[in-house]
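It would be a great kindness if you could assist me with a short task in structural biology. The full record is reproduced below for your convenience:
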Amino acid sequence: MSLGGMKIWNKDRTSWKFDATCTAPAILGYGYYNTVYYTTTLNLGIKIPEGSDYYLWLATHAAMDYLVERSQWTPRGVYYYTTRLDSNRNVLIDSHNEYGVFGHVSSNYYSLFTFPLPDKTGKGGLKFIHGNSFSTISDISKFSFLKWKGDIDLRSGWTPSSIDSSITPNNTIVFFYLDNETVTVHKDFDGVYRLYSSGLGEYYGVVKAKVIIFGDGGIKKSRAGVRVHNPKTKEIVFDSANEIMVSPKVITMVNKGLGEYTTVPGVARPMITPTQIGGEYYAGWFGSIGVNSNGTQIAPQRGRSYYVRASHGPHWLEIKEIPVMVLDAENYFNF
């Protein structure tokens, strides 16, 4: 059943629908933080506004931990991170099962998104209502704007700066659409995107990928379309000449096995920003569990992995309840 709404067309004839179910998050902050020792909690230093929910993406949300004794590596569980707000609504990152000198929170890339709650509306703009659901683009709205999108030949070692030198790992977030069940994309500690095989180890081939990059940038003005101003600041809040992040879905894969594909409700062609949601040890291989796609569904799959000859232990596989953000490629590309 149609919920009504308005279809917004882009110059390349792609489109997205603004209706009562639409959500449009804003990037509140992104970047990289260094390892913090002697604590299991990191204050990110970013406050979530009243009347907003949030989602925090981490490049490494979970990974396999190990102990080295007498030159032998032994797996000892998966360390992972959870997030919460303190009494002042500052975002806190809690480390679990991460061993070291009195605990620590390891360095990581992050992106923080805010979602205005339904009752937060401005004084002017657009509103679509269906039953108890409604969505707005108003004079107080904020968005995540698209910097670049396109098709690439993706190789291990790719960086977004190969498209534009001003795009760095610290000022953007990248989503990938692949339809290859055997390859998982991983954002490494140096900000480089690497490919890993579901059969373990780095993948050195080439895969076709559709890529979208969100980040800072000025708002482009259209000659015709939809535009919303903030009457107080006189700033343009929204202009339909700009593509935005629209209707992301956040799900977990905690009850799924490796390669067990599932459909994301409301998403026809899932785009993923790489993250690690678990860890594995298998016959000398230490690895993280990422998320990959067969083109229409997503599944937990082996991500970054490396072989340690001097290691021992039983097969250990653990997938944590890590939230994964998914976009629909059909909002950005023609198929």
Observations:
- DSSP finds no helices and 27 strands in the chain.
